[in-house]
Amino acid sequence: MHIAIFLWGFTGLLGKLIDLNEGLLVWYRLLISSVAIAIILLYGKGFPQLKRREFWKISGVGILVMLHWVTFYGSIKLASISIAMICLSTIALFASIIEPLVNRRRFDYVEIVFSALAVVGISQIYFSDVTASSGIIVGVISAFISAVFSVFNKRLTAHHAPLTISLVELLSGLVFLTLLMPVYLTIQPTTKFIPGISDLVYLLILSLACTVFTWTISLQALRKVSAFTMGLALNLEPIYGIGLAVLFAGEGNLINFDFIIGALTILVTVVLHTLYKFAKIYRSEKKYRSENNVPLP
Predict the structure, then answer these.
(1) pLDDT at 77
(2) How far, CA to CA in Å, does 160 sit from each of 58, 103, 154, 206, 272?
(3) Does some domain include residue 177?
(4) What total number of domains does the chain contain?
(5) Is residue 232 included in any domain, yes or no?
(6) Per-residue pLDDT tens over the stretch 185-223
(7) Has residue 297 been placed in a domain?
């Protein structure tokens, strides 16, 4: 479980090291990852059949995944790994607002308070370094998009195998980004289109180790640990990411007092939100079991 989370934390560092703009970086990541998953499915149970409506639903989510990756790496290029990772940690808090809207449920006002506290932390970081303001805004947009597709992905996983969802999402993201690339390169011009040897190595690590491999071992971990343990451990991802940024990307001088206060505010809020959410789930399950005479495990 922690190997998977550590490797996810590594994605920020790899995004900084790869000398391509965020659009091309994501294009290569989508290409390599989708080919790898297609090979796994080809030599496994084969490609499953999907109804046209389900295919388009999954494809739509795949476009959101692509946009999340582009904005995440855009945040890194505009600001730093540390800022992008801290912004990414607000995904669960965004989801607490988006999920009730999508599933037409009542809002939990305690979770809204947690979200407000996260905004306070982001604001603290925003004003700690005005030169990183663009990166912070793009990073928050990335977290918001991730929260949206996570809510829809939760629905999809109830009906389809994870690898099937991943392949369709990656391929749809790849096709859409390919169609979008001429416009994108007009807005974000670059002179480098083909990755060098070091870039190719980093892309392979990013695609195979940090995408395909981590997805597989995280699913295996969920067979041994509870969803609560996994959810709580995921809060370590920005810590791993920032630690790697300080050690290998020389970002220690970017972390000032205001950044630390803002980051701690966000991280503490995320941990408390996770504890609150799972306590609420446990109380709900306990009530259900009590009303239906089902013994607690």
Answers:
(1) 94
(2) 10, 19, 10, 25, 32
(3) yes
(4) 1
(5) yes
(6) 998 899 999 999 999 999 999 999 999 998 778 767 766
(7) no
What six digits make up the tokens of 263?
Answer: 């980051």
Which residues have a Cβ under 8 Å from the Cβ of 142 and sit 6 or more positions away?
Answer: 68, 71, 72, 74, 75, 84, 87, 88
Rg of the chain over all Cα atoms, to the nearest angstrom: 20
Q: What type of residue is 162?
A: P
Give the pLDDT of residue 114.
84
3-class SS of residue 155:
helix
Burial code (b: 16+ CB inside 10 Å, e: under 16) for 142-177 equals bbbbbbbbbbebeebeeebeebbbbbbbbbbbbbbb
Per the prediction, the chain carries an average pLDDT of 87
The more confident residue out of 131 and 198 is 198
Question: Residue 178 is part of which domain span?
Answer: 2-291
pLDDT in tens, 224-235: 766 556 666 777
Does a structural domain hold residue 296? no
This prediction has a pTM of: 0.88
Could you give the count of Cα atoms lying within 13 Å of 242 in the half-sphere of its Cβ?
22
